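REQUEST
  id: r-88c1
  op: predict_structure
  target: PD-(D/E)XK endonuclease-like domain-containing protein
  payload:
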Amino acid sequence: MALWREAETVLTHPDLAPLFGADARAEVPLVGRVGDVIVSGQVDRLWVGPNEVLLADFKTNRPPPLREGGVSRAYRQQMALYRAVLSQLYLDKPVRCWLIWTDGARIMPLSEALLDDPGLLSLTLSAQTAEQR
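RESPONSE
  id: r-88c1
  status: 200
  body:
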């Protein structure tokens, strides 16, 4: 019963409702370029609305962080890259990102300040560009 309550918490959260509606997509392949880096991934949930794009990724960390500052650098980089690719496709719409922690059904929006951190993408680009050499 506890597992059902956790799932229900996610599925009925008002901010996430579009991600689980009829127009949303699950397990969406995503490929694009950010600078000199080819980005390839899979978005767990994606919804493109008339005024915004929402994306969410499920994470299984136990226990999950309480604040976005506690989110691992790898997850922040992943979401920043997904957002950068989608922002190139939907120039006129903001892209809002969420992490959904399966432990306790924690729902965490990621702020623009976190995802716009130039060091986050530049470090990602530097690391991935070096790997390509």
